[in-house]
Methionine aminopeptidase (Mikania micrantha), 357 residues
Amino acid sequence: MIVAGPGTLQPRLISSFVGNCRCRQSTQPLHDIFRYNPGSLTVNLCTIIVQRQMIKPDLGVNLVCRNTDELPNSTRKRLKPGKLSPRRPVPDHILKPPYVASKKPPGITTGAEVHDEKGMECMRASGKLAAQVLQYAGTLVKPGVTTDAIDQEVHQMIIDNGAYPSPLGYGGFPKSVCTSVNECICHGIPDSRELEDGDIINIDVTVYLNGYHGDTSATFFCGDVDDEAKKLVQVTKDSLYKAISICGPGVELNKIGRIINALADEHRYGVVEQFVGHGVGRLFHSDPVILHYRNNERGRMMLNQTFTIEPMLTMGSIHPIIWDDDWTVVTADGSLSAQFEHTILITENGAEILTQC
Ligand SMILES: [Co+2]
């Protein structure tokens, strides 16, 4: 298949699940930090690929875990890791993506996901299931509920529907869903932490059904959430829908980042740069890279193509710090972060949101 998109992932691919690498605060341009280097690459779940050597030397400067519990101007406590439950089994009859059995980190493929009729139907089915699971997961969000309990329910519902929870075993990710609470930007691992009144939590669901991934996330309120946090969540959601509204065949991909960044600017929110949207379909992560911030990257949307848009907006710092678990990404200053995500299909008339109930 000939692909005209931003075409190649080189030299700076990013995708939406990272791991085994550390992010850092930097004054360097993003492209320097995230230059793609096949030799030094470790890919993980959802959002980046980084050149590890460039990242590691700064580890000592930017604390991976901070000692201070309190956050400035807030009664909220910093997020801390909880305990993980054992890995949940998946029945033999469920079709598993190839990366599950492989010991190697998942690779990145440079082809766009452009589908024939059958492929589009499969994408609609996996997108719909992902949306249903996400909607159900949202009903579980209440004070006192652990993120592990949400993982348990999500895992069971996906399996009951004959699908595989895509994050489980992707690059070593230990759970079936990502739960990112408060200052967690993305890739939070479900654990023993109980949700608290006033928390916000992003739940990111990806299912693998009949050989196709559907990927979606939303940020939910736990109990009584303050107005500032509510507004961040609403603007983040609005930015996703605004971006989707301009999509269509031949449209430049960089319009997505421009429209999201413009809305964030209006409200003085930050746009996280290191984690991006991605092609999705037969592969969990592929071309194109979808940048959510203002950029001039080349590449256009193609008819019958599927990819995600998944902006992460913050109230303060956009700099990510990754915990020792190699997954959990939090804002450097502990400020809140919200995210919404849909898988979309480029149609003749624009874009169809596949991850809708
Ligand atoms: Co994604």
